[in-house]
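Quick question, first post here. What does this chain look like in 3D?
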Amino acid sequence: MGPSKFYDRYYDSVKYLDFNISYTFGKRTHFTVYADVTNILNQPLRYYQGSKDYTMQAEYYGVKLNAGIKVKF
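> Answer (accepted):
Ran it through. Tokens below.
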């Protein structure tokens, strides 16, 4: 706590939403198809000084997608 509320720094609440799915098929050779999506809401991480009227820093990471096929012999 600073000498006044203006000198206090804090970060805003963040709600992340991620999704992943996979499916495996095959009897001898196993094939797995998968997809992962992170930060679907594209929420920024914000830091404030004193109040939400004074944004000190905002970080945007974007939505990320990772997908592919895995094969197991």
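The chain is about 0% helix and 60% strand.
The mean pLDDT is 90.
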